[in-house]
Structures are given as structure tokens and as C-alpha cells.
């Protein structure tokens, strides 16, 4: 049954009243992008433009591009205005029902959706999404906080708390990956072991606080001597290991000698007096028939034992290929 004219008028009046009292912005533009109807909420979010162009809106001479441009000129960098207007007009004319999120000065965020009517007009409907944006921001901050916490926990799990160096687990993990990489690409890989000489005497004579300071300064000395691509780690106690990527045994021996000389020149103070300390080094290079990084590390440990056995404060190298002169460098 067809609706009567009076019924249509009543429904039309009810629709207009509903649109007017809603807090959601609503407007209609004709096929030439001229504003022909709007509610108070729409006027409120575009107050910057209506304050200047109200006479044109009342005369139905306000084009959508002009409304967007006035607001953009008041809120954006000059060189970004026209591109912003172009994008907004393009979205407006599509009328495809796909919403975009826009920030309105003094009003916050709205999701703006455009629909093309059968007559060719464009109906604009916006929904306040400030609460959604607030929740999104809170969620983003929570994700960042958790990621930072996870990174902090990862660092703690991989870091020796006394020296700040990589701990044993982190050093072995890096060593395994470097061993695989060196074998895959045919690169050189050297490993160095470092051990403080007579460290027990330091603790016995000068105290464990002095011993801790010795370990920290040895760590800083070694880390400050090698390259950023290398890794210095503490295996435990007064024993350290250094992974030298793309390095041959001869070069590793020279590096160990530099570290040894720097350590020998360090001066320490304690209530018991001024004292010095030395360190011994074992160096080796990964070989093609080495089954694992552990095998390379074990050979470096044997070289360290040789340096200790032969008098300490020296560098010993075990290099099956004789790339560096095997034996002891004082």
C-alpha cells in the first residue's frame, strides 16, 4: 500500500529532526559538490570554515573543496594544503561507503563515510571515534612497554651482571652462529681465550671488591680493543672469550698482544695498596674439519693452558695451518 503525502511529510519531518539532534555530523552535497543540507554537529566540527564561509553555505554556494581548504590553511603547513584538499575531495567524490579517520581541530577524531545517493548527491556521515583512538593509543603504549620489557629481560638473560659483557650462553650462541656463517661463506674465524693471572691472590690480598673491579676493567679493556663486529664474553670467574670474525690466527695473536699489554699497564688501588695484574691468552683459528664451535673454543683453551704453563702474561697460539707462528709471544 502506497504511503500518503501526509505520512511521507511526517516521516520526512521525523527524519530531519533525528538528523538534527544527533551528535554525529551529517551533511548532504549535491552533484556539483555544493553543501545543501547539514546538522548542527556538522557545523560544529567545521566551525573554522563556517565562521568564515557561513554566507556561502546559507546561499548553497559553499563547495566541499573550499570548506576543506579553509580548515587546512588554518591547521596545516602551507605546502601540504593542496595535496590534503585533493585527497579529501577524491574521497568525497567516490562516495563508496569506505570510512577514513580524520582529526578535526578542537573536536578530535571522527570516522567520515561518504555515500552516493540515487540522485547523485553525496551524503556525509561521521562518527566520533575519540574513545577508540584513546584505546588504540593505550594499546600501542602497552605493546611498546611489553616489547621494552621483553628486550630488557633478553638483555639480562644474555648479559653478565658484573662486567656488562655477553654471558656464557650468549657467547656460545653467537659463536655457533658465526661458526656456521664462516663455514658457509668461507670466511676466517678466530677465537681468543683470556684469563687473569693469579686472580685468587687478588681476592685473598685485596678483597673481593677489588677482584670485581679487576674483572670490570679487564672487560672494558678487551671490549675497547676489539672491533664492534667482534664479541667479548665472560665464560665465568676470571675467564673470558673473544670471537673475532673474518680474522686469521696471526691477526688474532696481534690483537691479543695489544690487550695483554694494556692490561699489564693498568694500575689498581685497594686498602691494601696499589697493585697490577697480568693476563694470559690462548688463540686459535677455526679449521675446515672442526665439527663445531665448541671444538674451536676447546683448542683456544688448550692454547691458554700452554700460555699459563709457560709462565703467564703471554699469548699462545695453536694454529694447525701455521698461518701464525705457533708458540709463545712474550
Please sum up the structure shown.
The protein has 330 residues and is an alpha+beta fold. It folds into two domains: 8-129, PAS domain (Beta-Lactamase, 2-Layer Sandwich); 163-329, Reverse transcriptase/Diguanylate cyclase domain (Alpha-Beta Plaits). Helix content is 51%, strand content 21%.
Can you tell me about this structure?
The protein has 330 residues and is α+β, with helices and mostly antiparallel strands. The chain has two domains: 122 residues, Beta-Lactamase (2-Layer Sandwich); 167 residues, 2-Layer Sandwich (Alpha-Beta Plaits). It is 51% helix and 21% strand. The longest helix is centred in the middle third of the chain and has 29 residues. The C terminus is likely disordered.
Amino acid at each position: 500500500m502506497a504511503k500518503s503525502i501526509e505520512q511521507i511529510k511526517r516521516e520526512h519531518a521525523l527524519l530531519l529532526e533525528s538528523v538534527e539532534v544527533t551528535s554525529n555530523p551529517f551533511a548532504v552535497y549535491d552533484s556539483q559538490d555544493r553543501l545543501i543540507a547539514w546538522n548542527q554537529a556538522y557545523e560544529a566540527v567545521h566551525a573554522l570554515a563556517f565562521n568564515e564561509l557561513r554566507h556561502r553555505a546559507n546561499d548553497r554556494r559553499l563547495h566541499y573543496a573550499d570548506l576543506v581548504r579553509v580548515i587546512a590553511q588554518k591547521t596545516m603547513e602551507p605546502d601540504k594544503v593542496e595535496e590534503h584538499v585533493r585527497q579529501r575531495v577524491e574521497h568525497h567524490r567516490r562516495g563508496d561507503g569506505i570510512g577514513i579517520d580524520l582529526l578535526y581541530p578542537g573536536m578530535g577524531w571522527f570516522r567520515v563515510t561518504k555515500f552516493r545517493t540515487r540522485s547523485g548527491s553525496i551524503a556525509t556521515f561521521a562518527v566520533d571515534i575519540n574513545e577508540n583512538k584513546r584505546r588504540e593509543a593505550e594499546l600501542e603504549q602497552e605493546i611498546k612497554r611489553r616489547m621494552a620489557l621483553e628486550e630488557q629481560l633478553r638483555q639480562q638473560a644474555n648479559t653478565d651482571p658484573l662486567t656488562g659483557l655477553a654471558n656464557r650462553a650468549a657467547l656460545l650462541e653467537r659463536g655457533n652462529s658465526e661458526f656456521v656463517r664462516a663455514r658457509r661463506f668461507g670466511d676466517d674465524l678466530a677465537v681468543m681465550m683470556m684469563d687473569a693471572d693469579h686472580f685468587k691472590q687478588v681476592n685473598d690480598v685485596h678483597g673481593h671488591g677489588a677482584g670485581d673491579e679487576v674483572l670490570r676493567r679487564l672487560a672494558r679493556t678487551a671490549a675497547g680493543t676489539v672491533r664492534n663486529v667482534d664479541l667479548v664474553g665472560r665464560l665465568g670467574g676470571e675467564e673470558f672469550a673473544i670471537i673475532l670474525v673474518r680474522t686469521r690466527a696471526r691477526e688474532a695473536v696481534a690483537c691479543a698482544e695489544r690487550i695483554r699489554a694494556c692490561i699489564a699497564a693498568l694500575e689498581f688501588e685497594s686498602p691494601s695498596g696499589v697493585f697490577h695484574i697480568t693476563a694470559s691468552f690462548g688463540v686459535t683459528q677455526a679449521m675446515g674439519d672442526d665439527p663445531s664451535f665448541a671444538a674451536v673454543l676447546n683448542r683456544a683453551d688448550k692454547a691458554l693452558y700452554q700460555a699459563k704453563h709457560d709462565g703467564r702474561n703471554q699469548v699462545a697460539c695453536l694454529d694447525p695451518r701455521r698461518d701464525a707462528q705457533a708458540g709463545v709471544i712474550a
